[in-house]
Sequence to fold (598 residues):
Amino acid sequence: MAETNTKRPIFSQEETSYELKVPYLKKLFRFLLPYRKWLFLTIIFMFIATVADLVSPYLLKKAVDDFIPKKDFKGILAIGVLLVLTLFINKECSKNKIKLANRTGQMVLFDIRKALFDHVQSLSFSYFDRNSTGRIIVRIVNDVNTLNNLFTNGIVNVITDMSSLVLATVIMFSIHPKLAAVTFTVVPLFLAILFATRNAIKKNWRKVRRKIANLNAYIHENISGIRVIQAFVRQKVNKAIFKDVIDDVFVSWMKAIKINNLFGPFVEICSMIGTLIIYWYGVKLLKINGVTVGTLIAFVSYLDRFWRPVVTLSNFYNQLLVASSSSERIFEVLSIEPEIKEDENPVDLSTFKDTIEFKNVWFSYKDENYVLKDISFKVKKGQMIALVGATGSGKTTIVNLLARFYDPQKGSILIDGIDLRKISFRSLRKLIGIVQQEPFLFSGTILDNILYGRPNASLDEAVEVCKFLGAHEFISQLEDGYYTQVNERGTRLSTGQKQLICLARLLLQNPEILILDEATSALDTQSELMVQSALNKVMKNRTSIVIAHRLSTIRDADLIIVLDKGQIVEMGTHDSLVSKKGVYYELCTSQIRFVKAG
Ligand SMILES: Nc1ncnc2c1ncn2[C@@H]1O[C@H](COP(=O)(O)OP(=O)(O)OP(=O)(O)O)[C@@H](O)[C@H]1O
Ligand SMILES: [Mg+2]
Fold:
């Protein structure tokens, strides 16, 4: 059970800061504002419950001191009725308090989670480059969950406990100041030990949280990578690593709990010492100084109502620490501005009329590492342009810029002479359609997926599009036809079939400019023919930019742009580039050799 394990993959560990960060907590409590009415009502219920609870020791004192010695049965009966009444009020109010507190708490969590989700959806690609899916899910699910306790019980309980503690103290001092003062001599001892152990407790819980973060990361990685894991028969190794990871969680948890659990008994000891003092000192004061048996009984009850909240209060402090580190991370996400912003007065480009132009475009994903260097070219309406080049040469990057998933650092991209940054998101997305390297389907029916870009289109329209693309046949052969359920990765469908569904989705949206990123690269020859013929139909009468590894598919392109390490090295038609015997010619001949050898 070693701390570090050389076999273990490196996790992106989440450092949990365990400082109480007031500004973040303030921001967090702002989420409570819309519910202040409910919160207020909750506090009223809680206050009534507390007062009712504090009345009963006093009633007991009255019975013991006044009515029992005088054998006043009427009085005793009255006290009994009152005791039942206070108990009833206490329970009823507590019940309502818990119900309201949970309701308010869940509403607040709902709002926070919604704010996070909406915000993350608006962020640019660059954010998703920097943060893994697992990390983002942890923000929206786990970090919000850790606030659950605070908002549903923490805040309300702490107010209840504080008032119970304060009121009990006040009542004890008002009944008998001297006895109260002596009883509370344990408090300084308690505080001293509390401060001494606090850091150890904090440190151990921090460790537990880190280990749990590791566990999450490891599970996430193993589930998303399951195909690779099984392909490499790594299950056994991974099982061993996983055992280590959970062992770590277990050990650190047990250690933290051990220290934490010392606290409860310790409070009980303090409470016990207090009780002993009441009996020892109180009996001495009996009859003199107005101390009665009833007073002693009431004191012991009030003392219990003083020490009980102490445990919950210290837990609340821990809750606050956890909440402050979670809210720090939540607000960190909420404060990230999307890098790609719509212009304040965006231009609506309803149709594409003339040209797309890249003008001296420079781009880097990070720092000064330019992956596109001084790229300039023009595409005329109706043309088909092909981008070719070795892997990593920047083909996908060029189309990412054209779709405005990123903005270039230098130079500009113009559609009909208008800078991309000026065009409204809506019209740009309507103008440009992209077929991505890996087809992505959402969970739902095939029809849902086809209608994704135009939800109000009809089934007939979808069928028409699928017939046109040659997808209708296989879809209608599935058991539920267009209503067949697919899961988010579209398993049960072949890659070619998924690609066809994605094309149908695109075609229904009817974009004027089409971007195809190696749409046929992952297909076998049969499916490639099927998809290619569908693509040819889609590209007809449209402007298209095609990235293809198989050069045979782009022979007819109006312009072929050859990229190398982010620069354009050649440009021209297939015939002109072949006769030039340059880079493109090399690429063509090596592919022919490869095909022949295969
Ligand atoms: N999201 C990203 N963050 C940082 N660097 C990236 C990112 N995407 C790509 N790159 C880098 O930019 C360069 C160009 O990548 P790009 O994806 O445009 O190549 P490509 O020509 O499409 O390659 P392939 O043929 O393999 O698809 C590569 O060096 C790559 O490592
Ligand atoms: Mg690519």
Observations:
- Residues 395-396, 517 surround magnesium ion (ligand 2) (CB under 6 Å).
- The mean pLDDT is 85.
- Residues 286 and 292 are 6 Å apart (CA to CA).
- The chain has two domains: 22-334, 355-597.
